[in-house]
């Protein structure tokens, strides 16, 4: 089980956008060049973030992407779900329906205790990701790596 | 991101084995028939569980699989890791190494705050799965579905 690398790209790119003035849109080519990423593939991730309302896209020669809401209102979970989709990693196929004594009227995604156990773990994972905002990451980076914000905004404005 | 269906098969099969006497080995064909699963593919999962020390395999005409240790000593996490492997779903490729101001001597899997955030969520998921043993699942099933243990052991002994 492996998360797509687009999640890492999207998290870093959204964090980088927190260090630009809110009215400044950055073209995908510049966002991609920052980490030497393939622009076409990063653009797919940016479109997914736009569909999720995390970034907004401005067309035209001075266009590009910027955050669509404040970093306090964007969680790590929002970004992960925008790229990976909302489904849980464990998708119960209701194996119990094929077993002896199965009740065809029962939804075993709800009734099965194994399914419930896997769901509880997924919820713990989501709670942890939802507790972390871009604003929190931004503040932590600024404290631990004081040069990062300046380096980032000059590279993306250049 | 989707977990292999082998995880669901392995969890149900291990739970079913808790309802058999500890000295009774069940052949893969019978374990597979219980849920109408393809025996060859279930056998691959059983071999992975055997390599992880969760089940033991007895060869020969009366052979098969049984739990290798008591249900108190087998967690849901043990079974998930046996099938999916030990790696975290988010695998940091150290994107920061490709960014401006990168320090080639730094291991960004450790230093990157995004990597740390993803790691904390993975740990929360693992803690939850590690807190749930086969013994706990067995007890919960016995309380909520009192017919299940009897149905299971008769079907697997038949």
UniProtKB/TrEMBL annotation, chains A, B:
Q: Where is the signal peptide?
A: none
Q: Which regions span the lipid bilayer? A: none
InterPro entries per UniProt:
TR_Rrf2-type_CS, Tscrpt_reg_Rrf2, WH-like_DNA-bd_sf, WH_DNA-bd_sf
One GO term describing the cellular component:
cytosol
Q: What SUPFAM superfamilies does the entry give?
A: Winged helix' DNA-binding domain
State the Gene Ontology terms under molecular function. DNA-binding transcription factor activity
Protein name, as recorded = Rrf2 family transcriptional regulator
Q: Which organism is it from?
A: Actinoplanes aureus
Q: What is the lineage of its organism?
A: Bacteria, Bacillati, Actinomycetota, Actinomycetes, Micromonosporales
């Amino acid at each position: 089980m492996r998360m797509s690398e687009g999640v890492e790209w999207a998290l870093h790119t959204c964090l980088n956008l927190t260090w630009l003035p809110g009215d400044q849109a950055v073209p995908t080519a510049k966002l991609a060049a920052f980490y030497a990423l393939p622009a076409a593939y990063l653009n797919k991730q940016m479109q997914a973030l736009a569909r999720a309302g995390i970034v907004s896209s401005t067309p035209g020669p001075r266009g590009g992407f910027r955050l669509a809401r404040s970093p306090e209102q964007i969680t790590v979970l929002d970004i992960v779900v925008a790229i990976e989709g909302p489904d849980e990693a464990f998708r119960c196929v209701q194996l119990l329906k094929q077993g002896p004594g199965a009740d065809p009227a029962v939804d075993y995604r709800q009734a099965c205790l194994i399914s419930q156990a896997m769901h509880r773990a997924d919820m713990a994972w989501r709670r942890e990701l939802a507790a972390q905002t871009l604003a929190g990451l931004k503040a932590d980076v600024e404290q631990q790596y004081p040069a990062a914000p300046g380096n980032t905004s000059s590279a993306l404005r250049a």
